[in-house]
């Protein structure tokens, strides 16, 4: 049921419709109410009950929602149908077309004062911006969507909150991204709000920043929870298409309430299609774990699976991040030329504001490959670039390791004082494996 206008607005609407239909106050009131009640209602001095509004809507020949809110039920249903169309467009990877659809829907929702549809359009525009790497615009869309949902329960706000966290993460603001995700997870789990889709989005989104901050134990646990929650979401594409088709026929038949219910199911399922990107994070994490364990063939398989899932959706930034991990595995398997070619491609898609940590990782690995080939100056250049990027992002664990690599290189080339400076810098960033300065882990879900 839509939001209801204030009594004065409703009263004027009732009076206008009554006059248009040539009814007296007595004719409108009978047989349940009195002319005096209608007069009081039309003057805005009384707030009509749902029963009174249903009686008046029936006598005036309009829908309850239209009388209560001024919005045509057909208009709202048709907007929701177009929202599911835009979600489908984004789900199949047609990001530019989806952004155009969402922009049109946002303008219409704002014109008609439809807050739920406005927030859905903003959320869609934010997701489109993430896919294309427009991080500032994406974060602003998500913030506006959260403002629209300010009074809604936390599970309803999770997609917008998660989107904002991912935008901060991709911009290199790791600690704040983790703060947003963990705060939401803790509130959901401690409050008993076991919403599988909301939890899956949050846990899968936390894996990347955890890994980049050196919190590998938390990343592994988040991946475990996400994979345990995934079967509860299922494969939604076929069912969503069915619900969307059914809604079209119901709208044509004037059965708007049933069409709305079908569209709500379709919209929920299309949102679930974004989980493909999130599950790719889990394959990425598995690939990382296998690589750390020396199981390089299995690591390559998992990382290629993640890269294929992400490339299928044209998720450029995510694809670049996984490609760096894959390049490391290829280098360790003796395929350094293939790894270097992959890394140079990746660096064209990353920048300090868009994927700083993985741009640094690409430079680090290129430096190692250059050292192996005895190209010392080239190696040093890559290490220095990586150091600058990591200092900006605050990735302490990676900084310590990089300072060691740079110090060793400087020492081997006879620059002992410079090497000592690099080692001291690294010691200042040294952390124990698997730890960060994060607070306690969030409460666990009741799996």
UniProtKB/TrEMBL annotation:
Q: Where does the record place the HTH cro/C1-type domain? A: 14-67
GO terms for cellular component? cytosol
Keywords, A to Z?
Answer: DNA-binding
MF annotations from Gene Ontology: DNA binding; DNA-binding transcription factor activity
- Bias class Low complexity marks the residues at 431-441
Q: Which InterPro entries match?
A: Cro/C1-type_HTH (IPR001387), Lambda_DNA-bd_dom_sf (IPR010982), TPR-like_helical_dom_sf (IPR011990), TPR_rpt (IPR019734), TransReg_Diox_bact_type (IPR050807)
- List, alphabetically, the SUPFAM superfamilies matched: lambda repressor-like DNA-binding domains, TPR-like
Where is region (Disordered) located? 427-447
Q: What is this protein called?
A: Transcriptional regulator
Q: What is the lineage of its organism?
A: Bacteria, Bacillati, Actinomycetota, Actinomycetes, Kitasatosporales
């Amino acid at each position: 049921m839509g939001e209801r206008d204030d009594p004065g607005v409703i009263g004027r609407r009732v009076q206008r419709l009554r006059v248009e239909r040539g009814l007296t106050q007595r004719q409108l009131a009978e047989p349940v109410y009195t002319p005096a009640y209608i007069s009081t209602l039309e003057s805005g001095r009384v707030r009509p009950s749902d029963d009174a509004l249903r009686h008046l809507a029936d006598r005036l020949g309009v829908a309850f929602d239209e009388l209560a809110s001024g919005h045509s039920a057909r208009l709202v249903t048709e907007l929701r149908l177009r929202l599911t169309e835009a979600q489908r467009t984004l789900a199949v990877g047609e990001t530019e077309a989806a952004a155009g659809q969402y922009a049109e829907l946002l303008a219409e929702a704002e014109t008609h004062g439809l807050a739920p549809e406005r927030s859905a359009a903003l959320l869609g525009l934010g997701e489109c911006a993430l896919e294309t790497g427009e991080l500032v615009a994406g974060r602003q869309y998500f913030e506006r969507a959260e403002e629209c949902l300010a009074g809604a329960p936390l599970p309803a706000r999770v997609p917008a909150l998660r989107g904002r966290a991912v935008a901060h993460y991709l911009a290199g603001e790791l600690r704040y991204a983790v703060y947003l995700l963990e705060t939401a997870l803790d509130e959901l789990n401690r409050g008993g709000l076991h919403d599988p889709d909301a939890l899956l989005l949050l846990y899968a989104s936390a894996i990347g920043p955890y890994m980049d901050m050196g919190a590998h134990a938390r990343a592994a646990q988040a991946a475990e929870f996400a994979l345990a929650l995934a079967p509860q979401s299922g494969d939604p594409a076929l069912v969503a298409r069915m619900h969307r088709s059914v809604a079209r026929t119901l709208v044509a038949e004037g059965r708007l309430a049933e069409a709305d219910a079908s569209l709500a199911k379709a919209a929920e399922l299309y949102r679930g299609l974004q989980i493909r990107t999130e599950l790719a994070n889990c394959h990425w994490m598995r690939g990382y774990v296998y690589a750390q364990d020396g199981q390089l063939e299995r690591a390559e398989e998992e990382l290629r699976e993640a890269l294929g899932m992400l490339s299928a959706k044209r998720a450029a930034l995510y694809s670049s991040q996984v490609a760096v991990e894959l390049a490391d595995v290829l280098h360790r398997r003796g395929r350094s030329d293939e790894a270097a070619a992959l890394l140079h491609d990746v660096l064209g898609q990353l920048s300090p504001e868009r994927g700083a940590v993985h741009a640094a990782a690409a430079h680090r690995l290129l430096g190692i490959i250059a050292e192996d080939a005895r190209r010392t100056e080239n190696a040093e250049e890559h290490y220095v670039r990586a150091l600058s990027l990591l200092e900006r992002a605050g990735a302490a664990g990676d900084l310590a390791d990089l300072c060691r690599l740079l110090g060793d290189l400087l020492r081997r080339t006879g620059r002992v004082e410079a090497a000592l400076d690099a080692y001291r810098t690294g010691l200042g960033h040294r952390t124990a494996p698997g730890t960060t300065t994060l607070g306690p882990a969030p409460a666990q879900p009741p799996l």
